[in-house]
Design a protein that fits this description.
Elements: E1 5-16, E2 19-26, E3 39-46, E4 49-56, E5 67-72, H1 78-85, E6 92-99, E7 110-116, H2 120-133, E8 138-147, H3 154-163, E9 168-176, H4 190-198, E10 207-212, H5 215-227, E11 235-238, H6 246-250, E12 258-264, E13 267-273, H7 279-285, E14 303-308, E15 311-313, H8 321-325, E16 328-330, E17 334-336, E18 340-344
Parallel strand pairs: 7-8, 7-10, 8-9, 10-11, 12-18
Antiparallel strand pairs: 1-2, 1-6, 2-5, 3-4, 3-6, 12-13, 14-16, 14-18, 15-17
Helix pairs in contact: 4-5
Length: 350
């Protein structure tokens, strides 16, 4: 089902004027299990509205049994403002997950990581975990912020550099640097990326590139990597999503129930989809064992191939342009415009 479970808020620690780290634990005291780089989907009741938001787990899974998310307030962000300004220890939050495929490589590698602002949250989790657990792994991090007071995890990164001086290199890019700043000045743009990559040591291990931050930054970084000939399969990307207001998503939808043929692992399920329902909601309601995890377009666990018919898919989603062209859809945020046929793998969700 799409049901969430309850997590309890432990401590809340301020990272910067705009960001806090929230420690979460399972209600029964069991370890909160996750892989570095994954996220939780939280359901928050804010001013009479139920909001669903994904937040990366920022701690290392080596440090259980609890785990942390780190949330930066964004302008006009109802959920992030609620967490940063009003959330209290002892609060109970509804959560799903962990979800996501922004994960550490399975073998030793040189992780080339590029983060902007709160994009550091999954990056720091992955970097700390591989540095502590895999002695042959190297990490080079390019991290952009407005000023030194906006740097999330500054002391954590310094401690990691002290513990792993030969294996971790951190370059801070600041738009408004203090006088003593010796690193690059400005934004994390193509020129900053090129300079950072030029300064990396000779290639000794396989390089895997990790990119997370604001959309405009990420587009520039990905363009710079492509210009240098970095293959797509060597790049891992995490885009932070905020789902649209559901009212927008319901515009232009059919007013009558339509039929969807949903094929899971080769077995077909004929499912009625009521107006406003997503394919995932309708399929799970009809008993189809459809895979899913975050249920908000951020992880691709529910990805399926649209064989026939048309759907309206909420944006933004984590699908690449190539995946869209090839007919892939996310069933958690796709609503059929007519009768459709969708093929899914047999990996079952929660």
């Amino acid at each position: 089902t799409l049901d969430a479970r309850t997590l309890v808020v432990g401590s809340i620690e301020r990272e910067t004027a705009e960001a806090v780290t929230v420690r979460l634990r399972e209600t029964d005291g069991a370890p909160l299990r996750f892989e570095a780089g994954q996220f939780l989907t939280l359901e928050l009741d804010v001013e009479g509205a139920r909001l669903r938001r994904a937040y990366s787990l920022s701690s290392s899974p080596l440090d259980g049994p609890s785990a942390t998310i780190t949330v930066k307030r964004i302008d006009g962000g109802r959920a992030s403002s609620h967490i940063v300004e009003r959330l209290q220890p002892g609060a109970r939050l509804r959560a799903r997950g962990p979800s996501g495929a922004f994960l550490a490589p399975r073998s030793d590698a040189h992780l080339v990581m590029i983060a902007g602002g709160s994009g550091i949250t999954p990056i720091a989790s992955i970097a700390e975990t591989v540095l502590r657990a895999r002695p042959a792994t190297r990490v080079s991090l390019l991290y952009g912020n407005r000023g030194v007071d906006d740097v999330i995890f500054g002391s954590r990164l310094r401690a990691l550099m002290g513990a792993h001086p030969e294996r971790l290199r951190v370059t801070h890019v600041l738009e408004r640097p203090p006088a003593e700043h010796r690193g690059p000045v400005g934004r994390v743009d193509a020129s900053a990326v090129h300079a950072f990559l030029e300064a990396l040591p000779e290639q000794d291990l396989e390089r895997v590139y990790y990119v997370c931050g604001p959309s405009a930054m990420m587009d520039g970084v990905l363009g710079a990597l492509a210009a240098r000939g970095v293959p797509d399969e060597a790049i891992r990307v995490e885009r932070f999503q905020s789902p649209q207001d559901p009212v927008d998503a319901l515009a232009d939808l059919p007013s009558d129930t339509v039929m969807a043929q949903i094929e899971v692992g080769g077995r077909a399920h004929l499912v009625p989809v009521a107006p406003g329902q997503t394919l995932l909601e309708a399929g799970l309601g009809a008993g189809a064992p459809m895979p899913f995890s975050c249920a908000m377009g951020g992880c691709a666990a529910c990805k399926g191939k649209l064989v026939s018919g048309r759907v309206k898919m909420e944006e933004p989603s984590c699908l690449t342009a190539r995946e869209r062209e090839d007919g892939w859809v996310l069933t958690c945020c796709s609503r059929p415009l007519e009768g459709v046929r969708v093929e899914l793998s047999s990996r079952k969700g929660e």
